[in-house]
Known about the structure:
about 65% helix; about 180 residues; 2 strands; mainly alpha; globular; single chain
Amino acid sequence: xxxxxxxxxxxxxxxxxxxxxxxxxxxxxxxxxxxxxxxxxxxxxxxxxxxxxxxxxxxxxxxxxxxxxxxxxxxxxxxxxxxxxxxxxxxxxxxxxxxxxxxxxxxxxxxxxxxxxxxxxxxxxxxxxxxxxxxxxxxxxxxxxxxxxxxxxxxxxxxxxxxxxxxxxxxxxxxxx
Length: 177
């Protein structure tokens, strides 16, 4: 993703969602910092290219949509665009508050992922819904808990996150057949 595409995604998705959280929960502040986020995204992409031994030939350095989204999730989590002085859980659950950046990361990137799919002529945005879960409140709750704990353990894995996006794509396709 080149800088202009990134800025469009940032302004229309990440910033919009971050400001909505800030409006709904005044305890949080959204730090409008696209430069740091883009730099971290590039770092994540570089690490993935090294991991997958991508060569510097034309089109060999490109990552697929699943890996691009995984890099974006990790970047948003690491940059921590939402911060706050949380003293109580009045008005919201504290468990959600502690995972607010993971929620921002996944929700923003889920929108990016659906955009990639729409660009490639795959169904419509409405065809892509997160799966139901039976052990937690929702898939969003499950994934943000997982991302939160992985980050706390310094164990965010972009290849694993990329596989989750791949599996989500296949799940959505199977639900629409």
